Amino acid sequence: DGGITQSPKYLFRKEGQNVTLSCEQNLNHDAMYWYRQDPGQGLRLIYYSQIVNDFQKGDIAEGYSVSREKKESFPLTVTSAQKNPTAFYLCASSMGTVTEAFFGQGTRLTVV
Amino acid sequence: GIQVEQSPPDLILQEGANSTLRCNFSDSVNNLQWFHQNPWGQLINLFYIPSGTKQNGRLSATTVATERYSLLYISSSQTTDSGVYFCARGANSGYALNFGKGTSLLVTP
User: What is the pLDDT of residue B108?
Assistant: First the structure.
């Protein structure tokens, strides 16, 4: 089935460690996005990419890094520099940035 | 920055009631989407509606881009409609969706 797959669903990390969240799509979409959601809040944009090998910072990029080496993959690394990384992370993709976006099921990251 | 404001923030309905959720945005729009976030956190696409009116079963949506608002109508609500409804706005090509803070809906039996 076509869609967006995020893995893992749940992730526990020790403070001070980097961790990478996976996002893969088989929709042949050019644009991909990472959002962060905190309890009771809306979604905030971390990074987005319009094409392979190009990406832009969103509103809360500090402490995060991304790569876009393949069209179907957009991994997000949460670095030790991120002060409060415990959150729900959602990946999305769309054909272009003004077309309909679709979301994966999310990854819940907990720092212990 | 670009503002997306949703109202009301919380809403409690009895099963069978109708409701209207509102989304106001501060700038022009090329992309307007409504989502329903289920209890497991997944965002379900409801409407892609940068302008005009669309209907899907008991749900319908209207966007008046010139007046910078969008409305989501839920008729004959069911308990399965409970969850958080998000409005998200995109502008010109090259920008990502900006989300409102959502409307939390609880439909009681």
Answer: 97
